[in-house]
Design a protein that fits this description.
- By secondary structure, the chain is an alpha/beta fold.
- Strands 3-4-2-1-5-6-8-7 form an eight-stranded mixed β-sheet, sandwiched between helices.
- The two termini are 28 Å apart.
- Helices cover 41% and strands 19% of the residues.
Length: 255
């Protein structure tokens, strides 16, 4: 194994350990019981559901960073077949309970059958063009090398298949403010998020360049979610779709 890949996988192991204690948080998140600085589960699920519908998603899809499996459970209810990967053993065990999917070793993944397994997004255990598409929710922002991850996802998706994922929006004034306040705290160990992510956010043109270099053709960028709790609820819906205000970009691209 070359040194750069070894470093990326070491980062993935670190992420897995960091998220192991978060099972209860994600349970409460999807129950709507977390603070309003987090993107709402209803909005997260809605924008992903609409994006999958826009590409007529069907067949077998990879959930790259499945967490506790809530999105996999919801999308399977629509008829989509899903395989989920994650680096957190604790989250995968919760996903097994929530989805009913078998949790298998990475070396024993059953071709063409739904399952969960522990694997890194940068190095999956799948053969070329195994999936009809892949979606990833709030995961790719953590990987050590986004281009490597996008190339790996490109490898396992069939020709004309799609990738749907979200990223933090660097154009957002709220995201900029959040980073200015929180980044210095990460040095003191008081902001775990900025200690784990390689970059504080991504610009649309950055993502376009990385997608094309990885073999993907960008189809659409959708801005969503405005999270500061002091913004009135009525104004949030209008602001959330504005590039300068929305905290996230949802990206749809085709192979």
């Amino acid at each position: 194994m070359n040194r750069s890949l070894d470093q990326r996988l070491t980062h993935s192991e670190r992420l897995g350990r960091a998220f192991d204690p978060s099972v209860e948080f994600w349970r409460r998140y999807y129950e709507g019981a977390v603070d309003e600085r987090e993107p709402r589960p209803t909005e997260r699920l809605a924008v992903f559901r609409e994006a999958l519908s826009s590409v007529d998603a069907s067949g077998l899809w990879l959930d790259a960073g499945c967490g506790i499996g809530e999105m996999a459970r919801r999308f399977r209810e629509t008829g989509l077949r899903v395989c989920g990967i994650d680096m957190s053993s604790a989250l995968l065990e919760e996903a097994r309970l929530l989805t009913g999917l078998p949790l298998v070793a990475a070396g024993d993944v059953p071709a063409g059958e739904e399952h969960l397994t522990r694997a890194s997004v940068e190095r999956t255990p799948y053969r070329d063009e195994q999936f009809d598409g892949v979606y990833s929710s709030s995961v790719l922002e953590y990987v050590a090398d986004l281009e490597v991850a996008l190339r790996e996802l490109h490898r396992v998706v069939r020709r004309d298949g799609h990738v749907v994922f979200n990223m933090p929006n660097a154009f957002s004034v709220f995201r900029m403010t959040h980073a200015l306040v929180r980044l210095p705290l990460s040095v003191l160990g008081r902001s775990w998020y900025y200690r784990l992510v390689p970059r504080w956010a991504y610009w649309k043109w950055d993502l376009t360049r990385l997608l094309r270099r990885s073999g993907w053709e960008p189809l659409r960028f959708t801005y969503y979610e405005c999270f500061p709790e002091w913004v009135p609820a009525r104004a949030r819906a209008r602001l959330a779709v504005q590039p300068w205000a929305s905290s996230f970009i949802l990206i749809v691209a085709r192979k």
